[in-house]
Amino acid sequence: MTGTLRGLSPVREVLQIPPEAEKLNYSIGLHGSAYCAGTARSVVRPLITRHGLTDLRDAAALAASELVACAHRFTPDTEMVLTVRWQFDALRIVVYDQHPAHSSPEAREECRRRRNRGMWLLAATVETCGGDWGLTPVLTATGGTKSWALLPRQVR
User: Fold this and answer.
1) Neighbours of 90 (CB within 10 A)
2) CA pair distance 115, 138, nearest whole angstrom
3) Whether residue 64 has pLDDT greater than 50
4) Is 130 helix (H, G, I), strand (E, B) or coil?
5) Which has the minimum average pLDDT: 28-42, 59-73, 128-142?
């Protein structure tokens, strides 16, 4: 035997990642108005296309708009940052908002539950793509929330 395993089928087919995908790394400041979700969609769709990840375009646009819309619901009319990045074989979409820190663990948990309930469309989309999503507090004295979606490429 020469070091190769014979008769084993590949565990997972590997998709060829376009070289342009490795350069996908953008951060966009949004002013936090009610129409920022539409702005997020209109910015993310061409970025994803330009970087050769068209199979993720619709899911990425929806994820970005849902994350931004949720941030707007909890911190209306405050600036937020949207990042879109290809890293470790997955598309990562992150929104940082300026949600104030809560005074008690109970209030923090209730706020987290409210945000989670409002993200049902994001959850369904990410689950369909085989990805993940979540919320974490930003570790600053004034607070803030980091909400994110992870979208891996699917074998078709």
Assistant:
1) 17
2) 15
3) yes
4) coil
5) 128-142
Other beta carbons within 10 angstroms of residue 104's beta carbon come to 8
Over residues 73-98, the pLDDT tens digits come to: 999 999 999 999 999 889 999 999 99
Structural tokens at position 80: 């937020």
100 and 109 Cβ atoms separated by less than 8 Å: no
Alpha carbon distance 141, 67 (integer Å): 23
Task: Mark residue 45 as left, alpha or beta (left: phi above 0; alpha: psi -120 to 50; beta: remaining).
Answer: alpha
Residue type at 95? V
Residues 6+ apart with CB under 8 A from 154: 55, 129, 130
Q: Which is nearest to 67 in space by CA: 46, 39, 88, 102?
A: 39
Average pLDDT, the chain: 86
SS3 for 148? strand
With contact defined as beta carbons under 8 Å apart, do 146 and 112 qualify?
A: no
